[in-house]
Amino acid sequence: MTEKLGILGRKVGMTRIFANDGSAVAVTVIEAGPCPVIQKKDAATDGYNAVQIAFGEAKEKHVTKAMRGHFAKADRGLFRNTCEIRLAEAPELEVGQDITAEIFAAGEKVRVTGTTIGKGFQGVMKRWNFAGMPASHGHEKVHRSPGSIGHATFPGKVFKGKKMPGHMGNVRQTTSNLEVVAVRADENLILVKGAVPGPKNGLVLVRKQ
Fold it and tell me: CA 115, CA 106: separation in Å to the nearest integer?
C-alpha cells in the first residue's frame, strides 16, 4: 500500500488556541521532526518506492551494532525510532536530508497514527459499552456482568469474536481527516485540530491525507 510523505513526531499534549473570530479550538501539539532520511528505496533495485526516516536521538549503548552501521551510511547520528513510508513514485529526497514540519501547511488534512493508551484488563461495560445487568431486586453481584455468552445444544459453543472482557487499548490506531491548524516550523511543532491516538510523549506518524 503506497502512502503519501509523512513525518515522525512526539505527542506533546493538548491545549487550545483562539481563532480569528474568538472561538476556542482544541488542538493536539505534535513535535514533528526533523527526521533525516536514513535510506531510500526505488522500484528498480528494491521492487518498490519508499523512504526510511528516523526520529529521536539515542545513545550508542541503546542502539544495536547492526543499526549503528545502518545509521552510519546517512552520517546523521543514532536514533531511537525509524519508520519506512512507501511512496507511489521514486523519492526525490536524498539520504541524510531532513524532513521537517514545513511539508505541512495550515488548513491541510492529515492522518495521524499512534499507539493508543493501554487500559489493561477491562470488563464488557468499559470495553464494549455494554449496558450491564438490571439493578433491581433479586439481582446480586451481577450488575456489570456480560450476561449469557453461549447457546443451547446447537451449536453448543461460543462463537469466535464474541465481545467479552479482556485486554483493552495499546493497539496501533490511525485517525484520519484531521485539520492542521498551524505549523510552527521554527519550533518543529504542528498543531492539529482534535485528539490523536496515544499518551503524552507517545510516538506518532503524521502523513498527508
Answer: 25
The Cα 176–Cα 207 span in angstroms is 9
- Kindly report the average pLDDT of the chain as a whole number: 93
- Same structural domain for residues 114 and 126? no
Q: How far apart are CA 158 and CA 76, in angstroms?
A: 54
| pLDDT band with cut points at 50, 70 and 90 for residue 141 | very high
Give the span between the Cα atoms of 155 and 54, in whole angstroms: 52
The residue range of the domain holding 201 is: 6-118+172-208
DSSP states along 16-41: EEE-TTS-EEEEEEEEE--EEEEEEE
Calpha distance 140→118 (Å, rounded): 31
